[in-house]
Amino acid sequence: MKKVNILIVDDSPFQIALLKDALTENGFNVVGEAQSLEEVIEEVKRVKPDLVTMDMTIPGTDGFECTREIHKIDKNIKVIVVSAMMDDELIKKAKKTNISGYIQKPVDPEELTLLINRVMGDEELYLELENLYPKVFKESIIDLFNKLTKTVPEVIEESDTDIEIHSEGIAIVMGIIGKYSGRMIFDMSFSTAENLVKVLLRRDPKNNEELLNVVAEMANMFGGNACSMINKRNKIFGLRVAPPTTFHGESINISKAEIENNYSANVETQFGNLSINVGFKRGESEWISII
Question: Rounded to two decimals, what is the model's pTM?
């Protein structure tokens, strides 16, 4: 990622000094500072920043008006609010004003750095994820079976084609959120699920609900472990999995998702076959940073 040029907007010289030190120490280039609307307009035209840190309380105006004036000059300049005030109304208004992120004072330098990197993430970062995640999810499914069942499955029929999915009987669907959003599907037949759950529980499942809960938790571990592995490679991604949703029945079709790239594979195990499907898109990144 290229060096990010930052303009600091705040009416407090103390806060400007704190932010300047934190940003400089973390590798950013502070190119200017402003304490009023007039100074904001003048400095944006002069230094042409990539990003502006914006206080909400500016004499004679506020951070929203300053942001609108910045975007009149250059709509591509990113603005992150750095303010002591944070509530639902401010956050809602900030999004409508095309503000790219929001962090509350006192600012943790590491958290601010992470938020800026996420906001400024570009094509290079997305390509990194695109090249990384198929290998990681493949590794995660193999590792999961190895740890839970002491067996090693074989991943076959890998594909990058996004198609409608016809479930074998049980489909666990999970959203993925973070810098980029995505979707994961963990699918198997009831027969495979029964064979697998018997080994995991060391007994027959008490009922259908218990069987489905075990399969859902397997999917949760699979997706969660894979996302954690990706975050370890680059914490800017900040990926997390949403709670799983379970679909089951004799005929289930899951439509194609609105994703830009896709990885799917069949997995041969000693308990029967299953399939995995994962995809990501360039969406709205994680927006608010809260300590």
Answer: 0.74
Which bin fits 65, alpha (ψ -120 to 50), beta or left (φ > 0)? Answer: alpha
**Local structure of 211: helix, strand or coil:** helix
Q: Is the pLDDT of residue 290 over 50?
A: no
**CATH 3.40.1550.10 in the chain, residue ranges:** 124-286
User: Which amino acid appears at position 168 of this protein?
Assistant: E
Between CA 280 and CA 257 the distance in angstroms is 9
Domain covering 124-286, topology: Chemotaxis protein chec (3.40.1550)
pLDDT of residue 32: 96
Architecture of domain 5-120: 3-Layer(aba) Sandwich (3.40)
| DSSP string of 118-176, one letter each residue | HHT--HHHHHHHHHHHHHHHHHHHHHHHHHHHS---EEEEEE-----EE-SSEEEEEEE
The C-alpha atoms of residue 117 and residue 256 are separated, in whole angstroms, by 31
The amino acid present at 226, given as its one-letter code, is A
Rounded to an integer, what distance in angstroms lies between the CA atom of residue 57 and that of residue 63? 7
- For the segment 9-22, what is each residue's pLDDT rounded down to a tens digit? 999 999 999 999 99
Q: What gap in Å lies between CA 171 and CA 187, rounded to an integer?
A: 4
Q: Are 161 and 268 in contact (CB under 8 A)?
A: no
